[in-house]
């Protein structure tokens, strides 16, 4: 049977309604979402997603990392499935679309295929990957990393949040420890639809980002140890100020990233100051440096320079300094054949498009290690993400999901 024509589109209103309904679970304080991984809200969102999948005729499987796999059968029981999906967990002050569009867009693809009465040779699987964000349990993309063999399950289960709660115990607490062995599933291909989380597509007036590569990343958790002391009565020359050390390292991170332009970024994100009192000089600061580049040589050089700078600053100020890598992946090249299928689908549908490098890490970056993988991106307003003001339009969401629909149908092989 020939591939479906360009008149086949998803139900944009149904997709938008689903996005808005999911956003009611774990609402933020400013219109976004706080549905952090393995919280009660995460559990509630998972139940809603499962109900929707089962209503669409899919069967749900869950592995021991809590990854969810909803399967629409194909006509050939021996054919490898085509996967698509992303994540339902959010940042503490996250938006409505980061990750969620990729999961519910994939669900909408299946709903549309059902509406049209289409059959595919290959099964189609809609996936929700656990703990993509890494906001509560570092590192990011934790469960897809276990699936791809990057991390062991024991390592993942023993990760702790800022309150000392363990990943494995929290997964059990919300009731989403499945029985499947992580990584046992085999894939023909995996697609991930996602908002860009950057300003390029909107600035260029393009509806679709054809993702060819992903940036590599290092998260370096730096612990500086000084001496708690009174801010008013301690002479300046006698202070051992961990906060001052963090400030100087923060500036150095920025300078290092700027010195490696183009295609390099860096910043300090998460910060814990102890004792975090108005009139106490910080005696300990724990903070995470995030550096990224799509070029391996630049990524390696920046890590080395950040570590040298941190130790130099600490030595100058008399601080203790330890550095622990808590997140990493090398630059990613997505599958050229799948990239070409995404590009051709956008062209067939008449959507403006451009090749783009993903600035953020995604589950697709790990799954690319074990199966052919690529991504589809749509714009977001002002490039804003990881923020409750994150915004996309229904038209952008529909365009990205239309491209996902046609790309998945081509790979899953529509049959008579």
From TrEMBL:
Keywords: Hydrolase, Metal-binding, Zinc
Gene3D superfamilies: 3.30.70.360, Zn peptidases (3.40.630.10)
A GO term, aspect molecular function: hydrolase activity, acting on carbon-nitrogen (but not peptide) bonds, in linear amidines
SUPFAM superfamilies linked to this entry: Bacterial exopeptidase dimerisation domain (SSF55031), Zn-dependent exopeptidases (SSF53187)
Residues where Zn(2+) 1 binds: 87, 98, 194
InterPro entries: Amidase_Cbmase, Bact_exopeptidase_dim_dom, Peptidase_M20, Peptidase_M20_dimer
Cofactor(s) demanded: Zn(2+)
Keyword Membrane among record annotations: no
Annotated ranges, domain Peptidase M20 dimerisation: 215-314
Taxonomy, superkingdom: Bacteria
Cofactor comment text: Binds 2 Zn(2+) ions per subunit.
One Pfam family this sequence matches: M20_dimer
Key word Metal-binding present: yes
Positions bound to Zn(2+) 2: 98, 133, 386
PANTHER family: ALLANTOATE AMIDOHYDROLASE, ALLANTOATE DEIMINASE-RELATED
Family: Belongs to the peptidase M20 family.
Protein name per UniProt: N-carbamoyl-L-amino-acid hydrolase
């Amino acid at each position: 049977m020939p591939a479906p024509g360009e008149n086949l589109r998803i139900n944009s209103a149904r997709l938008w309604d689903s996005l808005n309904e999911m956003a009611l679970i774990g609402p933020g304080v400013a219109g976004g979402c706080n549905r952090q991984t393995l919280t009660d809200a995460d559990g509630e969102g998972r139940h809603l997603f499962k109900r929707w999948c089962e209503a669409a005729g899919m069967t749900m499987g869950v592995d021991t990392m809590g990854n969810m796999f909803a399967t629409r059968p194909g006509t050939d029981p021996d054919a490898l499935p085509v996967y698509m999906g992303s994540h339902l967990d959010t940042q503490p002050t996250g938006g409505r679309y980061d990750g969620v569009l990729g999961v519910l867009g994939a669900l909408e693809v299946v709903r549309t295929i059902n509406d049209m009465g289409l059959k595919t040779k290959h099964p189609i699987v809609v996936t929700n990957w656990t703990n993509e964000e890494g906001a509560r349990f570092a590192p990011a993309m934790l469960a897809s990393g276990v699936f791809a063999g990057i991390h062991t399950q024991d390592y993942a289960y023993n990760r702790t949040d800022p309150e000392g709660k363990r990943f494995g115990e929290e997964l059990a607490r919300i009731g989403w420890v499945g029985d499947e062995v992580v990584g046992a599933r085999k894939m023909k291909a995996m697609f991930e639809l996602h908002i860009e989380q950057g300003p390029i597509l909107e600035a260029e007036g393009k509806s679709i980002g054809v993702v060819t590569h992903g940036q590599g990343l290092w998260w370096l958790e730096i612990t500086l140890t000084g001496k708690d002391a009174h801010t008013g009565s301690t002479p300046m020359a006698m202070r051992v100020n961990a906060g001052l050390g963090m400030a100087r390292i923060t500036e150095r991170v920025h300078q290092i990233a700027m010195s490696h332009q183009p295609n390099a970024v860096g910043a300090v994100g998460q910060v814990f100051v102890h004792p975090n009192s108005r009139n106490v000089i910080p005696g300990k600061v724990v903070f995470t440096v995030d550096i990224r580049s799509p070029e391996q040589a630049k990524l390696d050089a920046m890590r080395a320079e950040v570590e040298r700078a941190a130790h130099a600053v600490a030595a100058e100020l008399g601080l203790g300094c330890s550095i622990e890598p808590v997140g990493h992946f090398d630059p990613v090249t997505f599958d050229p054949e799948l990239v070409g299928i995404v590009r051709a689908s956008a062209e067939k549908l008449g959507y403006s498009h451009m090749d783009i490098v993903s600035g953020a890490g995604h589950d697709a970056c790990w799954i690319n290690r074990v199966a052919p993988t690529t991504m589809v991106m749509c714009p977001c307003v002002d490039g804003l993400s990881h923020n409750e003001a994150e915004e996309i339009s229904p038209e952008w969401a529909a365009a990205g999901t239309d491209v996902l629909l046609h790309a998945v149908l081509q790979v899953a092989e529509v049959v008579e």
